[in-house]
Prior knowledge:
Shape of chain A: globular
Helix content of chain B: under 10%
Order of helices and strands of chain A: EHEHHEHEHHHHHEEEHEHEHHHHEE
CATH class of the largest domain in chain B: Mainly Beta
Number of domains of chain B: 2
Mean pLDDT of chain A: 97
CATH architecture of the largest domain in chain A: 3-Layer(aba) Sandwich
Low-confidence stretches of chain A: none
CATH superfamily of the largest domain in chain A: Thiolase/Chalcone synthase
Oligomer: heterodimer
Order of helices and strands of chain B: EEEEEEEE
Amino acid sequence: MTDVAIIGASMTQFGEREGWVSDLLAEAALDCLDDTGVRAEALDHLYVSNMASGEFEGQTGVPNALAHDIGALGAYTQRVDQTSASGGAGIYAAWQSVASGASEMTLLVGGEKMTHRTTGETTDVIASLTHPHEYKHGVTLPSFAGLTARAYLDRYDAPREALAEVAVKNHHNGVDNPHAQFRKEIDRETALDSPLVADPLRLYDFCPITDGSAALLVCPVDVAREYTDTYVRVAGVAGATDTHVVHERRDPTTMDAVVKSGERAFEQAGITPDDVDVAELHDMFTILEFLQYEDLGFAEKGAAWEDTMDGVTARDGDLPVNTSGGLKSKGHPLGASGVAQGYEIYTQLAGEAGPRQVDADTGVACNVGGFGNCVTTTVFEVDG
Amino acid sequence: MSLDAGRCEDGHLSCPPHPRCPTCGEPQTETVELSDEPATVVTWTTSHATPPGVREPNTLAIVEFDSYDVRLLGQVTGEDIAVGDRVEPVYAEALREPDAGIREPASQSWDGYRFSPL
């Protein structure tokens, strides 16, 4: 297989944006191409990670729209929908296109336009990924998080404050991310006193509804050297699935698809969790940061909350988690989120993260779709 | 209406049933009726931000049946519930308004069983 490099990355401002999904996709795509000096007509493959442009705004066929808008006509295009993990699945698709030799220059763009809908409508679009037997009970992704958080706190005797600490940490990190939706410190009391959303989880345990887009430019390592010295290698990438019916899982506090995708990605990269210097985890809900931290092997089951309280996952800790601010503060435009995780790790490994820079040669992104239904984990490394 | 779990020849159960057993991949060859079976609450939540057509607040629980090794998620009849509480299924004609959400109403059933504390 061909060694795969990322030679450029971009993300738009996340938040409430004017413009529609095609506008946001084009903005990130052109920023990424312009930064690297690659012309659109050089693209062999163009992938668009997007969950629900048809449901949100009645616009389908977005890869074709993007190819036309940016001058990439003739490129092979494909939409990647893996719900909230569409971006991670897009990284897999982009890696596969280059590793296989099918493409010498692939652009991956993830994006979603959501904020024109009410919170109820948006929640329902996302909840439509659930099984009919759960959907009819009015289950939502936040309610799965509430069910899981109660089981976790109960089983591991973890204090409620530990979940609030995830929100405090990620908001703190987001202050230094110019693209983040929220750039505002919060304290633990604010999180603990915020309105109940899905008992025991409160408003500050949840990511916001967000518009935005992000892009990664991917090519063989040999080609990368023609463009830049600061490329980042995709050392491992793997996905896995779990049950569609969430209540059928034996242990509500373990996400088997995170475990499997992580093991496969680490094996492909030839590393162990101890080798990881920085991680972007899918904190759509604060509890998910604990589950992924443990299920990727960064800590034993039930120990993530202690590492968080001890500052291990803070920006100046041993394993900084969500230096971008995470979905919690950066925002969560569904199809963009996994690509934006890749943007953050690329930026950290390239040494371009400014005030949020950490010392890192190996980074991991874990992108979770559904409630752990489908997961992609990617290992990024500085070459040499 | 019935509340069926599927069972394969190896004895694994799932509710709802699937064409193949999620545990071992063998066909599920029989069903087990759970609508009269008591169960115990594994975890619960009360959702305060519900989608169109869903009651608010919406208290939900995942339960494990006492006599069968199978779990199920469902609405709770009240809001007063705790981990370890024992419950029984109670039939409801419509768990949410079929026409209010994004799902095609004809694509699935909308009646089902809530859990009522024993």
